[in-house]
Amino acid sequence: MTPPAAPNSAAARDIAYALHPYTDQKAHAENGPLIMTRGKGVRVFDDSGREYIETVAGLWCAALGFDNERLVAAATEQMRKLPFYHGFTSRSHEPLIELSEMLVQRAPVPMSKAFFANSGSEANDSAIKMIWYYNNAIGRPQKKKIISRMKAYHGVTLASASLTGLPANHKLFDLPIAGILHTACPHHYRFAHEGESEEDFATRLATELETLILAEGPDTVAAMFAEPIMGAGGVLLPPRGYFPKIQAVLKKYDVLLVADEVICGFGRTGNYWGSQTLDVQPDILTCAKALSASFLPISGVLVNEKVFQGISEGSATVGTWGHGFTYSGHPVPAAVAIETLKIYDEIDILGHVRRVGPHMQKALRDAFADHPLVGEVRGTGMIAAIELSADKAKKTPFDPAKKAAARLVKLGEENGLILRMLPGDAIAFSPPLIMEEGEVDDMVARFGKALDALSVQLR
Ligand code: PLP
Prior knowledge:
- By secondary structure, this protein is of the alpha/beta class.
- It has helices spanning about 10-15, 25-30, 55-60, 70-80, 95-105, 120-135, 160-165, 190, 200-215, 240-250, 275-280, 305-320, 330-345, 350-370, 405-415, 435-459, and strands spanning about 35-40, 45, 50-55, 115, 145-150, 180-185, 220-225, 255-260, 285, 300-305, 375-380, 385-390, 415-420, 420, 425-430.
- The structure holds pyridoxal-5'-phosphate.
- Pyridoxal-5'-phosphate binds near residues 120, 231 and 260.
- This is Aspartate aminotransferase family protein.
- Keywords: Aminotransferase, Pyridoxal phosphate, Transferase.
- Its cofactor is pyridoxal 5'-phosphate.
- Belongs to the class-III pyridoxal-phosphate-dependent aminotransferase family.
């Protein structure tokens, strides 16, 4: 057990005053926090000066690592020039205009307008409200249900947490709200039938989706949300042919598709958007995280012309489109996001991910695919996961009481790695996109030591 925090130490004050997100509060009161004080490149340093490689870029988000003077300069310059303005009632400002233009120009499919919020959750809630508003405006008030998927992660606000398909986001919260449906998770390793090919699995999932829409009544189903690669649910890549088959069903019943690009956007999968890697043609796209390299909070919602026209018509009848946050398109995060997108272009982030990503995927597979504790190594570009398994051949998960992944996270810390555990005893790899091959090798070597130490503990 961790020794008790010294009185008045930062750890003791943390325990006394901070309510931590995504934390077992009782365990935290016993064990205390891991306090970070600074960052450099792909590394962070704690308050005792210990160095760690950040294998998941904080929360899948610090795409340019943990220091960048250009982003600091972009923020300070904008703070000096115009520290706040908003976009309500036709007011505007340069960063709002330029970032909207940049995002619409970079969209994976023709998009019409960009809207801003502060987090991925708010972006997804905003998208739901846009869809409801749109359907009301065009005279389809019944068409409101939203389909998501088991193991999806779309955020924690009331509607986005309802879209999320993970038990911890619903239990004790009285969620999901009404009108949110969850269809099957497209993870072949876990959910395909014995001997079922990826194509057959994809066909079955599309059939299940169609059955769900028909059972609910197509005139009541408005949209489906999907991450191109499911992130927090386990880094789950869909089977080959999945999105084209799913989209054929959605088109047939006039159901909109929202691509949640909060993790996949801005190069993570080797293309600018995960939608390009996975063949997704969304009507609405949400993004956040790497949009500003997470130096400041900002998220975006892109809508196509069809959806925009509905919102436009509706707002004319009401007299306003009654949605928007005080900080929608805040000039300082918007200026940082503009600079971030310029940096991605200048350093050719896609070229970098296309070079380092395959190296990372190969290094993880070479080192761990045959490891007795590893069931599956999966991923593409610079996103991956290693799923632990008690019996490799039978794909048996570990007894949850063994806390295999939680132990591995702790052993990672002892070996200079910040690791992130995902449901199903998986460990995510989603490092800063700027990570170089040598740093990948260092990360993989440290992970190997942690995994070997876990083998000893579980023996
Ligand atoms: N969507 C996806 C795919 C995410 O991974 C996340 C967060 O991890 C969110 C939405 C929610 O974003 P936020 O935590 O900024 O609200």
